[in-house]
């Protein structure tokens, strides 16, 4: 969650990013922005200098431009300089903003390459795999292991099995997020859906849903939320029947188990 000034800074940087990407390679820019975020995050002096509100915005931009000269694409250098010139609540939020811009640039690259749905689905499925394996999730989140070791473990799981953009985003999440890896990658899946103009509905069903049932449920939810809805379905036999749907903070419990629980509460 960003402070108010950082939210405003990020919104402005997003507009700049979309403009710059019209004439640039979004994959390159996104990848380089994540690398810049890593570099700035690891260098306290650099981080503080770029976010120092006591320094004039054009001086911060010029400093960022000088530091990155010849090291990244011109488009990347321009967006970093523009981002540094904005008012951030803290140096940590500047780093977080650069990382967010990198992720969004990669997702825009996926959309431009007609791979947005693929990346979204791969991120969702990867999150399910990680969440379903306690030993794996613990290994990926174990801070006593080096970042290189944890990301290498992830790569052995997904190398050659997912799109390159999916891999880059997932590796970044495991390397940098304070959240559990499954949750961090789940959030990326939602971000991917949002970049494609969709909402995500997490559906838990007592059994497999047919194509017709999925289509009908997606249509109903799209009407409710006035936007295309992507279904991510998990199976839980303990529901006995029906489905539980979560969209954002809203939860719709249409399961038999949920109805029984409601009935029991009413009898107390």
Automatic annotation (TrEMBL):
Its main location: membrane. Gene3D superfamilies: N-terminal domain of the delta subunit of the F1F0-ATP synthase (1.10.520.20). GO terms for cellular component: plasma membrane; proton-transporting ATP synthase complex. It is a peripheral membrane protein. Pfam families: OSCP (PF00213). Keywords: ATP synthesis, Cell membrane, CF(1), Hydrogen ion transport, Hydrolase, Ion transport, Membrane, Transport. GO terms for molecular function: hydrolase activity; proton-transporting ATP synthase activity, rotational mechanism. The keyword Hydrolase applies. The keyword Ion transport applies. Transmembrane segments: none annotated. It is found in: Cell membrane; Membrane. F(1)F(0) ATP synthase produces ATP from ADP in the presence of a proton or sodium gradient. F-type ATPases consist of two structural domains, F(1) containing the extramembraneous catalytic core and F(0) containing the membrane proton channel, linked together by a central stalk and a peripheral stalk. During catalysis, ATP synthesis in the catalytic domain of F(1) is coupled via a rotary mechanism of the central stalk subunits to proton translocation. This protein is part of the stalk that links CF(0) to CF(1). It either transmits conformational changes from CF(0) to CF(1) or is implicated in proton conduction. NCBIfam families: ATP_synt_delta, PRK13430.1. Belongs to the ATPase delta chain family. HAMAP family: ATP_synth_delta_bact. This is ATP synthase subunit delta.
């Amino acid at each position: 969650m960003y402070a108010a000034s950082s939210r405003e800074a990020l919104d402005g940087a997003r507009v700049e990013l979309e403009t710059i990407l019209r004439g640039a390679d979004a994959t390159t820019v996104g990848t380089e922005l994540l690398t810049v975020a890593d570099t700035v995050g690891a260098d306290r002096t650099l981080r503080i200098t770029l976010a120092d509100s006591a320094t004039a915005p054009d001086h911060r931009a010029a400093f960022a431009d000088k530091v990155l000269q010849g090291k990244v694409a011109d488009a990347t250098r321009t967006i970093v300089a523009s981002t540094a010139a904005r008012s951030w609540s803290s140096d940590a939020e500047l780093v977080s903003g650069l990382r967010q811009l990198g992720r969004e640039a990669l997702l825009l690259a996926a959309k431009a390459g007609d791979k947005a749905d693929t990346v979204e689905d791969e991120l969702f499925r990867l999150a399910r795999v990680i969440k379903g394996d306690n030993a794996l999730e613990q290994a990926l989140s174990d801070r006593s292991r080096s970042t290189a070791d944890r990301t290498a473990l992830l790569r052995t799981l997904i190398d050659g099995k997912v799109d390159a953009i999916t891999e880059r985003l997932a590796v970044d999440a495991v390397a940098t997020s304070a959240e559990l890896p499954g949750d961090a990658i789940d959030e990326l899946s939602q971000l991917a859906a949002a970049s494609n103009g969709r909402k995500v509905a997490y559906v838990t069903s007592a059994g497999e849903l047919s194509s017709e049932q999925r289509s009908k449920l997606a249509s109903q939810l799209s009407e409710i939320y006035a936007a295309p809805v992507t279904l991510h379905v998990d199976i839980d036999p303990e529901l006995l029947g029906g489905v539980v749907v979560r969209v954002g903070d809203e939860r719709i419990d249409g399961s038999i188990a949920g109805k029984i629980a409601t009935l029991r509460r009413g009898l107390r």
